[in-house]
Amino acid sequence: MKVSNWGKYPVVDGPVQQYAPGQLINGQSSWIPRGMGRCYGDASLGERMIGSQRLNRFLAFDPQTGILTCESGLTYEDLLRVMVPKGWFPPVTPGTKFVSLGGALASDVHGKNHHTEGSISQYVHHFQLLTAKGEVLNCSRTEHPDVFWATLGGMGLTGMILSLSIRLKPIQTSAINSISSKAGNLEEIMALMDETKAATYSVAWIDTVSGGKRQGRSILSYGEHASLEEVQGTPWEKDPLRLPAAKAIAVPIDFPAFVLNPWSIGAFNFLYYHKQLKKEVHKISSYDPFFYPLDNIHHWNRVYGKRGFTQYQLVIPRSAGKTVIPDILNRMRKARLGSFLSVLKLMGNETQMLSFPLAGYTLTLDFPISDKLFPFLDTLDRLLLDCGGRIYLTKDVRLSGESLKKMYPDLPKFQQVIRELDPYGYIRSLQSQRLNIHST
Predict the structure, then answer these.
(1) Which of 13, 100, 207, 293 could form a Cys-Cys staple with 35, CB 3.0–4.6 A?
(2) Which pLDDT belongs to residue 130?
(3) What are 249's strand-pairing partners?
(4) Residue 50 and residue 5: Cα distance in Å, rounded?
(5) At what angle do helices 321-335 and 186-195 cross, to 10 degrees?
(6) Per-residue CA distances from 271 to 261, 275, 340 (Å)
(7) Cα–Cα distance between 427 and 421 in angstroms, integer?
(8) Strand partners for 180
(9) Ranges in the chain, pLDDT < 50
């Protein structure tokens, strides 16, 4: 069976075995947990993949505390469908709702509110973890705390999350009250992000192609969950917690490789920036286009062709933002490696172990796989290492083990935890082997 993740690179030939309660996993081959396959690289690919899609039940909900207990294969899409009409929203959501909650914990996902509300790990009360030894551990901040923190952002290497409890966020409506503001260059967008950093949600689309005085021109979208008063006179007035209308298109085939080239990427960046005619636009809209703008285009990864693509997501300290980000954009333009979709966000405080965030700027870049891409990304890695930055393992497909050690100083602590949980190294992924995570 040919299996890949969302980036469609690499492709492996191996079984995906759906987990059933009480099932014995260990055998003669290594294994790695797998959710919906929405990570971009090779983190949930391996010799044998154990799927969680059958673990998709709601188990309990406490409306007094907002604590939801569910199985790990439940997706954000399912959570939203059931909980939004009841007045509850995920405390943190990634840019797609087609991911499992277990996968979100294993990636310690962050969203548009990391600068104000942190990553998903801040809202996890406890979870049940199936280890390589066949034990089921109840993990929390007080019970097996090292395993708890190693699992959050641990890319599935501590074991398989079976169920979890997280605290949801109360909402009055399903609408988002947002403002979109245009910035003419990188200096303007950084200043605008500073001015609006009190907004709960904030994200900027950034043009990575234009240079000179227009380098880094952007559109910043920031906002809040709309209140009942704010939706007066809108479709939400009579039905405040309405779900978005189900509508989607699909990309039917893999695009030919020539479709994505410097000219088409440049044209897209030009049109996207100029599609908003006014300097500032205020609107009340569904949560879908604000949080999940690409989910209405099914199989959009096919745009990048049969060779696939990678998403290079980096985070750098705030002090380095005004020098390193322009340097990256200049190098991309010189190498003629524009990014089709690029996002800039503020991030808040650092967490533990292999969790990605640290206080500063995160920049997300999409690149079609090509012969010159990985050597170019190696040069970007060196820029990050020089300024104390790192890349997001959930999106990674080519980082070196040596760079990992420098980017994640808690790596030895994480390695000690997985050695104790899995002394024979049953739980392995292509990523963990590439990064030498199991080495002493």
Answers:
(1) 100
(2) 96
(3) 297
(4) 14
(5) 140
(6) 15, 6, 12
(7) 10
(8) 221, 281
(9) none
DSSP string, 408-420: -TTHHHHHHHHHH
Edge-to-edge strand order for the sheet containing 175-183? 280-286, 175-183, 218-225, 201-206, 342-347, 360-368, 309-317, 390-391
In whole angstroms, how large is the CA radius of gyration of the chain? 21
Q: Determine the Cα angle at 298 with ends 97 and 216, to 5°.
A: 75
131-166 burial code (b ≥16 CB/10 A, e <16): bbeeeebebeeeebebbbbbbbbbbbbbbbbbbbbb
Write down how long the chain is. 440
pLDDT for residue 440: 60
What integer pLDDT is reported at residue 341 of this predicted model? Answer: 86
Query: What distance in Å separates the CA atoms of residue 45 and residue 3, rounded to the nearest whole number?
Result: 8
Confidence (pLDDT) at 6: 96
Largest CA distance in the chain: 63
Is the peptide bond prior to 94 cis by the omega test (within 30 degrees of 0)?
Answer: no
Half-sphere exposure of 264 (CA within 13 A, CB side): 11
Closest Cα to residue 201, out of 91, 84, 320, 350?
A: 91
For 7-71, the DSSP string reads T--S-EE--EEE--TT----SSS-BEEESSS-SSSSTT-SSSEEE-TT---EEEEETTTTEEEEE
- Could you tell me whether strands 2-3 and 12-13 are parallel, antiparallel, or unpaired per DSSP bridges? antiparallel
pLDDT at position 263 is 84
Q: Is 371 exposed, middle or buried (0-12, 13-18, 19+ CB in 10 A)?
A: exposed
**Rounded distance, CA 54 to CA 41, Å?**
23
Give burial (CB, 10 Å; 0-12/13-18/19+) of 366.
buried
For residue 233, the Cα-to-chain-centroid distance in whole angstroms is 35
E strands, 261-317, where? 280-286, 297-298, 309-317
Phi (first) and psi of residue 179, to 5 degrees = -130, 135
The pLDDT value recorded for residue 349 is 86
- Is the distance from CB of 397 to CB of 310 less than 8 angstroms? yes
